[in-house]
Write a structure and sequence with these properties.
The complex is a heterodimer of chains A (334) and B (116). Chain A has 334 residues and is of the alpha+beta class. Chain A has 8 helices and 12 strands. In chain A, a hairpin with a 5-residue loop joins strand 9 and strand 10. By secondary structure, chain B is mainly alpha-helical. Chain B folds into 2 domains: 68 residues, Orthogonal Bundle (Arc Repressor Mutant, subunit A), CATH 1.10.10.10; 32 residues. Chain B is built from 5 helices and 3 strands. The chains are: A alpha+beta (334), B mainly alpha (116). Strand 4 of chain A pairs antiparallel with strand 1 of chain B.
Amino acid sequence: MTLPAENVSPQLTRNRRLIIVIGVVIPLLITMAAAFVMALWVPELPNPVASHWGTSGPDGYSTVGSVIALPLLMTLVFAGLAAFASWKGAPNGGMLWAHKIMVAASVFLSISLSVTAAGSLAVQRGLENAENAPAIAGIALVAFPIAFVMAVFAWLMLPPAEYIKSTSVAAQPIKGSVTQRVHFSSTTRVGTGVVVVAAVALGALGIALGIQAVSNPAELLLPAVIGLVVMALAVSTLSWRVTIDQRGLRVRSAFGFPRATIAPDQIASVATVEVNPIGEFGGYGWRWAPDGRSGIVLSKGEALEVTRTNGKKFIVTMHDAQLAAEALATVAKK
Amino acid sequence: MLVRVDPASETPLFEQLAASIRQSVIDKTVTAGERLPSARELASSLGVNMHTVLHAYQELRDEGFIELRRGRGAIVAATAQSYDSLADGITAVVAEARAHKVSLATLTALIREEYQ
């Protein structure tokens, strides 16, 4: 009698189970347990409770219900996001490092939020007035290392990260006499989907700054400066100008900063390669991959890959990568 | 867009520049509305005189390939879209020549004869 092939559950099914247990169930259990404990303390707590501390004691107050609900709500949203993002798995059925980070971050978030929330309420038990709440910096000092260690455990319990290794195709110099000079220029930008996501994120940042401007104008300067710099950088790095000539490769974002240059004598080899932004670089923009590559990653598909003489690789995704690679190979050869 | 020039060639530099850009428009490496590098930028990039680049740009403008606008530089003309059938024809001719093992020199000579 012939038995069907050994009926092991496929790798992906196992990984999904791990994602659900480690990334969703455990974080939610932790936050629910914390919420339960905090709920037991409600009779002993002042109302409202201190929920934000400044340099000289508490400076923000809220209802005990929101302090209990917030970790639960945030964990729920983030765990859902982590599971959703990592559900499809890597091309070969494994987990990408970007997915593992999401799942581990879910654990980190749930523990750090729960411990800080519970800690901040614990010190207020028996108080008549929340204004007398003691400082809680010590709790954060405990919460974050614990959360970090647990996140590391979560990372280790997940399967080893699968790396997408796309083969690069070496580029040939453009045929022609040794005296020829080439100039290549092109604009590369992110796709519509990324623009929409970026617009939503920047819109949210703008709204947050607006709320801060109305509610607490005195403390607006620093968030506003950081927010505006982040916005300018984000908008600037959505589109890049690529120039290749006898001075080497130059990439320059829309507003002129950031930019990068690789001189011909720093170039060891030039190739084209297929790039998967999320899988290999964990996202879009100026990116660093865990395998040491860096570059301008704006779209899935063809990219120019430059290997420097020090072995480091620089990537630029672009629709005309083949032509760019040939042009750069021509320049580098000399 | 790829621009190639060879200072050692007998063809004038501005002609080489114009030919290179013309080819990019015809094979759609650059599309209508796209901005070409400024004359100054292209000149320093290729190590040629800026007036050489301007000369090439003016020739391309006269042929209707690009528009030169004050302050906006050179832009690929919208009218420069109608080379599809020419590009297809060239692809077909080259494929045919390869199939019959006709050399590039022979093919060029044939085209030149027909053109004149």
